[in-house]
Amino acid sequence: MMAEQEEKEVFSCRQEKDHVVITGWEPEEKTVQVPDTVGGLPVTALDAYAFSGGKHEEIRLPVSMKRIGHYAF
After folding, report:
1. For residue 55, pLDDT beyond 70
2. Residue 10, beta-bridge partner list
3. Could you name the domain of life of the organism this protein comes from (predicted)?
4. Using one digit for the tens of pLDDT, what is the confidence trace for 2-21?
5. What does the alpha-carbon distance between residue 62 and residue 3 come to, in Å, rounded to a whole number?
6. CA of residue 67 relative to chain centroid, distance
7. What does the alpha-carbon distance between residue 31 and residue 34 come to, in Å, rounded to a whole number?
8. 61 has pLDDT over 90
C-alpha cells in the first residue's frame, strides 16, 4: 500500500489487523514526520530497513509507535 502525506512525502506501508506498519519512505527529505494514523488505523511500527540508507536528519515518530525493526535507520 502506498500513501501520500502532504503531496510530497510518500511512504509504503502494510496494514495489520488493527494497526499499520511503515515499510519504506521514498523522498530524501531532511525532516520526516511519520503520520499518527493511516486509513484511520494507528501507525505502531517501522519495519526493518524502513529508512535505511536515507539521508534524513530528523525523523519524528508518533506517540503510538511501539516497535522499530532492525536497521530501520
Report:
1. yes
2. 4
3. Bacteria
4. 554 444 458 899 999 999 99
5. 16
6. 11
7. 10
8. yes
CA–CA distances in Å: residue 61 to residues 19, 58 = 15, 10
Q: pTM for the complete prediction?
A: 0.80
Cα distance between residue 51 and residue 54, in whole Å:
6
DSSP string, 2-71: EEEETTTEEEEEEE-SS-EEEEEE-S--SEEE--SEETTEEEEEE-TTSSTT---SEEE--TT--EE-TT
Are 60 and 34 within 8 A, CB to CB? yes
The total number of residues written for the chain in this structure: 73
pLDDT of the residue at 7 = 43
The predicted structure's pLDDT at residue 1: 59
- Residue whose cell numbers read 532492525: 70
